[in-house]
Amino acid sequence: MRIFSLLFICTTLLFSTPALSLPHDNTQGFLMFQVIQDQIIFDNSNIKSAMLIEREGNFIGLEIELKAPAIDEISRISKAGLGKQLNIVLDKKIITTAIIQTPLGGKLLIKGITRQEAQEFLDSLNHHKQPLAKRENLQEDPLDELL
Questions:
Q1: Which of 36, 65, 71 is nearest to 51 (CA)?
Q2: What would the CATH number be for the domain defined by 6-16+32-142?
Q3: Is 81 exposed, middle or buried (0-12, 13-18, 19+ CB in 10 A)?
Q4: What is the pTM of this model?
Q5: Tens digit of pLDDT for each residue in 40-94?
Q6: Are 34 and 131 in contact (CB under 8 A)?
Q7: Separation in Å, CA 54 to CA 60, 81, 84, 104, 119
Q8: Which residue, among 95, 91, 113, 89, has the nearest Cα to 10 in the 3D structure?
């Protein structure tokens, strides 16, 4: 079984030529450098709760509520990264990016993630939060239990 965690990375994009501007329609063939300034990994040690969000049967995203130390850390990272790109990485793959416009807080809604990726993340949280002796008694639906 793979272990999933969400990784938030604040990056600054740098290009080798200051005057270089990327065309809006096609960026293929351009070399991009990323300088990772800060990151935080979210797993069941710093997530208070997580659940799938649906409206009228349509999958919207994954809502995550953080514990106190993680709230402070994501707030610090996002304040320092205002106007910069935030990459959200799941299982070593960027699932969505955004430009940080305001500091983040204790509740996050992750969009741009598939229902399957969100469910695998929830399954991993539920599986790894219980002692080994109790893992065989996992409920069928991981959303039935509070993280």
A1: 65
A2: 3.30.1360.200
A3: buried
A4: 0.62
A5: 887 778 889 989 999 888 988 889 899 998 899 889 988 988 988 888 877 677 8
A6: no
A7: 5, 30, 29, 22, 13
A8: 89
